[in-house]
Design goal:
disordered C terminus, Tscrpt_reg_PadR_N (chains A, B), DNA-binding, mainly alpha, three-stranded antiparallel sheet, 194 residues, homodimer, elongated
Chain lengths: 194, 194
DNA sequence: CATCGTTGTGCAACTAGTTGCACAACGCCT
DNA sequence: AGGCGTTGTGCAACTAGTTGCACAACGATG
């Protein structure tokens, strides 16, 4: 139940139309809470009906015309309540570990390639994050000033840490898979003298 | 689309009834692909209809009676195909970073408490993983023997790394929030002489 | 032996997220 | 002026995951 809140946050940072939101989701909030444009439009409709946001008066009311939204006090209150509320972490659901366990039963065929591919994806994403960090926080990690900047920095750093985690783990997994596949023709678990 | 495959993996490791699967999900595969008993029962039905698994003949056919399932060759083939297939990582969706950004706009009230709580959750989970590691891989991380053991070790180590990531990041976030809240009465971004 | 809690299986209804398509408006281009 | 690609908005239908409840079977217990 966080998409509406992610949208409220984005709109508070800057009032936007559906497409602008979609774009910004693709390169900032969406790193941590991804959403397609369909989800966003639907949610904008709901939020408007709920009185949490409203279309800026300047916006054209016709279909196909762009509409920009801004957050109303009720929306801000809702967001503040959500931020302070107790909320359990959502259950983890990631396919790769499952695939490794499946491979332990049905064989590692094709896995190394996939691991390599994912590794590359995460490397790329880490590079993106670092680029953003260099642009937005050129001072480096220390004393970034006001509260807002600090918090944004922490969030971005979360992204960096997360990708680093993936890269390390995928490397470990890849190494294990390669060892196993080398051992298949060679010797099962005894590679060399002592 | 991985729940059926997680179930196939679990069933290959050991034929089980719905409830047994649910239990095992709660303490092993489910760490990485969580599922409720409802999802599992529904999926067992689908897998049976698809000819990927079958109820063990010994099982009682009545409602309420326990039924154990085993994987058929078609199911194993399907699992092998999935393991080798190309599959994109699923989009990330985590509420905490979003909440931090929301807090950057509406204030950090209540956040420190939540961060502390989550930190504690992840610490506990890390301890669980370490306990499992101590039980299942008492030799330590090196040369764990056959392919199966190696892969299981890699998966578990993924859990350990993941929780470690959370703990580190949450600590950083918590520190930032506390600094900000201290600064609220104090000085905004200049704590001390020099 | 009745009823009561526990274990195990399952349906139904709901919420969230995805995919595919429709179509208006706008700016070009010729 | 007619057609053509791009931008922006949106509906509809589907898949995945969640929640709440129903109910059979089994064993304990007054």
């Amino acid at each position: 139940m966080s998409l509406p809140h992610a949208i409220l946050t984005a709109l508070l940072e800057k009032p936007s139309s559906g497409l602008e939101l979609t774009r910004r989701f693709d390169k900032s909030i969406g790193f941590f809470w991804s959403a397609t444009h369909q989800q966003i439009y639907r949610e904008l409709g709901r939020l408007e009906r709920a009185g949490h946001i409203r279309a800026l008066p300047s916006a054209a009311p016709t279909r196909g015309g762009r509409k920009a939204y801004e957050v109303l006090p009720a929306g801000r209150a809702e967001l503040a309540a959500w931020t302070a509320a107790r909320d359990e972490p959502r259950p983890l659901r990631d396919a790769l570990p499952v695939r490794l366990r499946a491979a332990a039963v049905v064989g590692t065929e094709g896995l190394a390639e996939e691991l390599t591919r994912h590794l590359e994806l995460h490397r790329r994403r880490l590079a993106d994050y670092r680029a953003i960090a260099a642009r937005d926080f050129p001072e480096g990690p220390d004393v970034p000033g006001d509260a807002r900047t600090r918090l944004h920095h922490v969030v971005l750093d979360g992204g960096v840490r997360m990708e680093t985690f993936w890269i390390e783990w995928l490397s470990e997994a890849l190494e294990a898979v390669r060892l196993i596949e080398a051992g298949d023709q060679d010797s099962p678990a005894d590679p060399g003298p002592v």
